[in-house]
Amino acid sequence: MSGGVDSAVAAARMLDAGHEVVGVHLALSRSAKTLREGARGCCTIEDAGDARRVADRLGIPFYVWDMAGAFQRDVIDDFVAEYEAGRTPNPCLRCNEKIKFAALLDKALALGFDAVATGHYAQVVEGTAGRELHRAVDEGKDQSYVLGVLDADQLARSFFPLGDTTKPQIREEAAARGFAVAKKPDSHDICFIADGNTRGWLTERLGERPGEIVDEVSGEVVGAHQGSYGFTVGQRRGLGLERSSLDGSPRFVTGVDARDNRVFIGTSDLLGVRHVVGQSARWCGPAPSGEVRVGAQLRAHGEEIPATARVEACDGGEGQGGESRLVVDLDEPVRGVAPGQSVVLYDGTRVVGSATIATTAR
């Protein structure tokens, strides 16, 4: 129970369904702030209090579980390391994979509970081969993308009671139940960067590392930066360049070379990606066999693109180990796809699985 409206209604619905429900708020910060800043951030002392008041109204036990250490190690430290290596991670997927449906679920099972229920907008459907993860009915709120890291065993012990309802309906239900959080703003952006300034937050931790901004086509040095970790493929704003000196056309980040601390820029025609290779694949059910037609989504609120996917054995190259890799060929180019992001595969509304993008090609 995050202290928001979604997890409040999720708890109420699980109780209505006849389950024995215990509310748990995760303390993910070693020095939690007292108040939220509007819709930014989460896991504040105020949020814990909101969750407790909902639990009291429902008449269920409520606990705060300290997972700050695991969150620091598996989410925040991973986030910093990925940006430092020139990649663009999605911390929400990592949190679901390592915290909510791993550390939290493991602790719950050890204490004798059967499952974890959350306020995510997704649906679990009983299929012929077991439980399946599907998109929510509210397309605008669908969160199946950030749940694409769950495997079959985790799905078997997960409930998403809100997947068949739209967000306005959830707020109406919360108000009808008398929850004070009915109109509370949704949290967004990265929860541990409350002011939304990712580059500034990373600079505090990694320090300034001056380097060159290079035109990808000409090879000319056209500017300077204070750390390649502050850039991601597809980025247009914050380049610090005078457009007039670059023929007046807008420029975008086309690549980040962390080893040489260089940022490459180019025109929009250089951004389209048609080929993606992913590693560390996770499957929500059986892994696909052979070449399959799928829908591929490459960012949390991105469009689903028709694609062909296949699983291949790795050649043992750098960073690959001996594991397999997922190869995805997109029917149409997608702009701004960066290594470190995740590709999530769909068969209709069903989530097939996901992988972390290692390389891309145009």
TrEMBL record:
Occurrences of domain tRNA-specific 2-thiouridylase MnmA-like central (ranges): 201-266
Coiled-coil stretches noted in the UniProt entry, renumbered to this chain: none
Pfam families per record: tRNA_Me_trans (PF03054), tRNA_Me_trans_C (PF20258), tRNA_Me_trans_M (PF20259)
Keywords: ATP-binding, Cytoplasm, Disulfide bond, Methyltransferase, Nucleotide-binding, RNA-binding, Transferase, tRNA processing, tRNA-binding
UniProt-listed GO biological process terms: methylation; tRNA wobble position uridine thiolation
Gene Ontology, cellular component aspect: cytoplasm
Domain of life assignment: Bacteria
Record-annotated active site: 95 (nucleophile), 191 (cysteine persulfide intermediate)
Reaction it catalyzes: S-sulfanyl-L-cysteinyl-[protein] + uridine(34) in tRNA + AH2 + ATP = 2-thiouridine(34) in tRNA + L-cysteinyl-[protein] + A + AMP + diphosphate + H(+)
Domain tRNA-specific 2-thiouridylase MnmA-like C-terminal: from-to ranges: 275-357
Homology family: Belongs to the MnmA/TRMU family.
Name this polypeptide is given: tRNA-specific 2-thiouridylase MnmA
Species name: Marihabitans asiaticum
